[in-house]
Design a protein that fits this description.
Strands 3-2-1-4-7-6-8 form a 7-stranded mixed beta sheet. A two-stranded antiparallel ribbon has the order 5-9. A two-stranded antiparallel ribbon has the order 10-11. The protein has a single domain, classed as Spore Coat Polysaccharide Biosynthesis Protein SpsA, Chain A (Alpha-Beta Complex), CATH 3.90.550.10. It has 10 helices and 11 strands. Strand 10 and strand 11 form a beta hairpin. The radius of gyration is 18 Å and the shape is globular. Helix content is 32%, strand content 20%. By secondary structure, the chain is α/β, with parallel strands linked by helices.
Length: 274
């Protein structure tokens, strides 16, 4: 069983459906999704938790491809309020839901290896190739941030795809230290910088961009991350997500997921008509 964490609210249905669909079509291993969510509507009326009926719909649809696929909601509202509420980073560029990954050590069912994925990811290879990477004596693995290594620090990480060793993390208190930074220090890339500054036992993925491809999909790519990028001529910062299908195909000229997109459209129609 491969344990995988996503985090977000009920507006992320399309993204997580596409990401998990691309995963189950390429991975035979049993998959257990732990979707971290919370009710943040007190501060932003749009930020409502991912709903049980959304989770059950995705689970039922994707069991057609992976019969033992599980999709569970983890309501982090109480833990967030106890440990992170009113922190210095609740109004960052990125959603406060990004910080929910920093609560993973609070849930005893998450043991050993766990993969964290941002919702703006698509799986192009077998996710087991990522899960099987050696984690002996490591807290986590990640890749360089494609742009951050030039503009922030040469060894700066991208936290959108992480392989976590929950046992080592609890031993070193990595996430406790990260939460403390979030509470006390204003940061532009909140969770990412907290993890970067708190790490004591870390290595990059071997052949790292294979597991966090932040540009064009390659033959050996396992995870494609639809994060911000730059086109130089003419200069433009873009931020195209996988659910913006026409932009993915016409602007990014990525067609490796066209079959996933077609299946997604059929599933989404069933969801809307149920």
């Amino acid at each position: 069983m491969i344990d995988i964490i996503y985090a977000g609210n009920d507006l992320m249905f399309d993204g997580v459906l596409l990401s998990t669909l691309s995963m189950v079509r390429r991975t035979k291993e049993d998959i257990h999704i732990h979707f971290f969510t919370m009710d943040f509507s007190e501060k932003n009326e749009k930020f409502k938790p991912f709903r049980v009926e959304q989770a059950k719909f995705i689970e039922n649809e994707l069991r057609k491809y992976n019969p033992n696929f599980k999709f569970d909601i983890v309501d982090c509202t109480d833990e967030y309020n106890a440990l992170l509420k009113d922190n210095k980073n609740e109004k960052p560029v990125y959603s406060p839901y990004c910080t929910l990954r920093l609560l993973a050590d609070r849930y005893d069912e998450l043991k050993g290896k766990v993969i964290y994925l941002d919702i703006d990811t698509m799986i192009y290879g077998d996710i087991k190739d990522l899960y099987d990477i050696d984690m002996t004596n490591l807290e986590y693995r990640a890749s360089h941030d494609y742009m951050g290594r030039f503009w922030i620090k040469r060894d700066y990480i991208n936290s959108g795809i992480l392989l976590l060793n929950m046992d080592k993390i609890r031993e070193t208190k990595l996430l406790e230290k990260s939460r403390y930074l979030v509470k006390t220090k204003k940061m532009y890339f909140t969770d990412q910088t907290a993890l970067y500054k708190s790490k004591v036992a870390f290595e990059f993925f071997p052949n790292e961009y294979r597991f966090n491809e932040q540009r064009k999909v390659k033959e050996d790519t396992v995870v494609k991350h639809f994060c911000k990028g730059i086109k130089w001529f003419p200069f433009k910062v873009y931020n195209v997500k996988q659910w913006e299908i026409e932009k993915v195909q016409k602007y990014l000229k990525i067609h490796e997921f066209d079959e996933d997109f077609n299946i997604y459209k059929e599933i989404k129609e069933r969801y809307l008509n149920q």
